Amino acid sequence: MPTQEEIFAELGIPGAMAPNNMSSVSPISADSLGNDSTMEHLWAMKAMEHAEIYFNLLCAVDPRLLKLTPKDDLIYTAFRKEFPDFNIAKLDEKELKSNEAKQKWRPFCMQFEKEIEDYSFATLVRIDGSNEYSEENSILVTRIQFFCIEIARNREGLNDLIRTTFKPKPRTKKTA
Fold first, then answer.
1. pLDDT at 1 over 90
2. Which Pfam families match (predicted)?
3. Inside any domain, residue 41
4. 53 and 119 share a domain?
5. Separation CA 60–CA 31 (nearest Å)
6. Shared-domain flag, residues 29 and 55
7. Rounded to whole angstroms, how far apart are CA atoms 33 and 117?
8. DSSP codes joined into one string, the chain
9. What are the residues whose beta carbons fall under 8 Å from the beta carbon of 154, sequence distance 6 or more?
């Protein structure tokens, strides 16, 4: 279980202290955080930062050459075997989040628990793969679902037009 210090460092705020004089080296669980809006905001900022970096990569590099993880081949093969007809061009939220979909996705995702670091972290993915991230064109999924969708989009050519349609956006250094 990560320490508070590790969580804050992952969120881009190393050296931050947890509220209520909690020790920065004691392990914490999600349950102990409750519905802390500050923590939710920090995780959302981290997910958006990841999305911005990934989209800039798509704008700058041939997506077919991108390797998102050392296990791309395994992820892609398993994904297309389990979800051969999954529409990656334009996502349908029901195919990811309905009760029926969750029953299929949950065991699929769990097989990557030891293979992919942070496989269950919340990550933004574009709903319409031909367009950029925006509030209307983003959905929150697990990191392994993001990898499944984006590795498939890259390999199947659905991200090819991103580089010619969009340009990378300069990033500004955020201060905490």
1. no
2. PBDC1 (PF04669)
3. no
4. yes
5. 40
6. no
7. 22
8. --BHHHHHHHTT-TT---STT--TTSB--HHHHTT-HHHHHHHHHHHHHHHHHHHHHHHHS-GGG---STTHHHHHHHHHHH-TT---SB--THHHHSHHHHHHHHHHHHTTTTTSTTTTSEEEEESBTTS---STTEEEEEHHHHHHHHHHHHHTTTTTTHHHH--PPPP-----
9. 63, 64, 66, 68
pLDDT at position 20 over 60: no
Host domain of residue 98 = 46-165
The first and second tokens of residue 113, run together, are 């628990």
CB of 138 closer than 8 Å to CB of 127: yes
This prediction's pTM: 0.75
CA 94 to chain centre: 18
Report if residue 80 sits inside a domain: yes
34-85 per-position pLDDT tens digit = 556 676 677 778 888 889 999 999 988 899 999 999 999 999 999 999 999 9
Residue (of 64, 62, 53, 61) closest to 169 by Cα position: 53
